[in-house]
């Protein structure tokens, strides 16, 4: 199954390493599920209160085109709702 990964952080108290750490966890989760990662999307220092974020908009656009079957992200790499 093809999967896209999404990671973000929202404040100046976090850093780009937060994104790298999230992607690492997501890649590990995807591997355990037998999924193939086809793309990674991210947003840096942007609040999650709005969907008007470049990374999430690209993820939505590619999802509508059928580029992947599952989007995963967050602290544990599980599928996004």
């Amino acid at each position: 199954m093809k999967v896209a990964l999404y990671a973000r952080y929202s404040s100046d108290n976090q850093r780009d390493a937060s994104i790298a750490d999230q992607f690492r966890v997501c890649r590990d989760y995807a591997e355990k599920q037998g999924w193939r990662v086809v793309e990674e999307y991210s947003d840096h220092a942007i609040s999650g209160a709005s969907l008007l974020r470049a990374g999430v908009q690209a993820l939505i656009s590619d999802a509508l085109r059928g580029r992947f079957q599952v989007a995963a992200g967050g602290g544990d790499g599980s599928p996004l709702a």
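Residues 16-33 form the longest helix (18 residues). The first strand starts at residue 2 and ends at 9.
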